[in-house]
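Q: Could you write out the predicted structure for this multi-component system? I'm mainly interested in how the pieces pack against one another.
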Amino acid sequence: MTNNIPLKIAGVGYSLPKTVVTNDDLTKLYDTSDEWIYSRTGIKERRVVSGEENAVDLGFDAAQKAIEKAGINPNEIDLIIAASSAPPELYPAIACHIQSKLGIEAHIPAFDITAACSGLLYGMQIGRAFISSGIYKNILIVATDNNSRLLDWSDRGTSILFGDGAGAMVLTPSDDGIDDIIAIDIKSNGSIGEYISLPLPGQNCPLVEPCSTKKFQIYMNGKEVYKFVVKILPGYIVDMIEQAGMKAEDIDYLIPHQANQRIIDAVQDRLGYSDDKVISNIKYYGNTSAASVPIALAEGVEKGKIKLGSTAILCGFGAGMTWGAAIVRLREGIC
Ligand code: UT7
């Protein structure tokens, strides 16, 4: 088996539902205000799915854009990895649905991973291992979430934060020997998993015992998540940059998970970055979980906030608790 094949980030894309829910709209659901939400989170509005639209549709749209930018035919894809924390169903996997929607008839592998808002980073690390070892060549990663269907819309501490959306990335072997992943790392700490959870409904066999079931909805202890992330994330990123033999100023952009503007600010402050180096769209989309980093990346390029031929640090964190970061090269033409 060939080893250490460098990889290229060949294409990225994103997709958002059209329906906008503003902070003012939320005041119809519970006692809150635009001022409270914006000052605590940086969020003004979020997008939500409607009708039958779901994470598969959003993911398919984002995937098509990333594949087009990568300049490959869907039938050249060897593996699909989908990352989601709020999938429309547990199985079939989102990745299998997307294989079908893309019209890929070959029996390629397709599977989902559950790493919540770190999903893109986890997908990239898995994809990198497969490309580097020569097992698969063209890998599609789709990070997509329809949080709005699984939120408790009476829980004002959690439902203010989330929105729906999808992002996608195509990884291929690099044709010029340059590896676009300069450094990557993923982590988890299962002992604090209760900070964010989505228990499946279910009950024991009635022949065994009667029992109640929890509601199928997202639970979050926002305060504990906030404290944990602000404590570990800035130092984690600084260490990664150092271990890569780089300095913060060597990297052009910070593309962080869009969970809370105050968390983004904490990382920005630690890196000493000016505002133009930090990509933030949380104001318009809220926290789109797994999709948030790839949306920030693809939309940042599309809107000219990110110039290509540059380097960026991507970072995510979320349920698990999981977290991860990558220092990447962003080539011309990826979006
Ligand atoms: O990708 C997943 C990662 N998740 C995160 O990164 C979440 C990180 N955490 C956060 O962003 C924040 O914890 C939130 C924005 C979710 C909440 O902010 P907080 O400052 O931690 O609020 P809290 O839950 O501690 O609540 C403070 C007060 C409470 O009132 P009392 O008990 O002090 O009287 C809440 O009842 O604010 C109240 N409150 C609200 N008031 C108006 C909670 N939610 C709201 C609301 N509007 N929407």
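A: Regarding packing and overall arrangement: DSSP finds nine helices and 13 strands in the chain.
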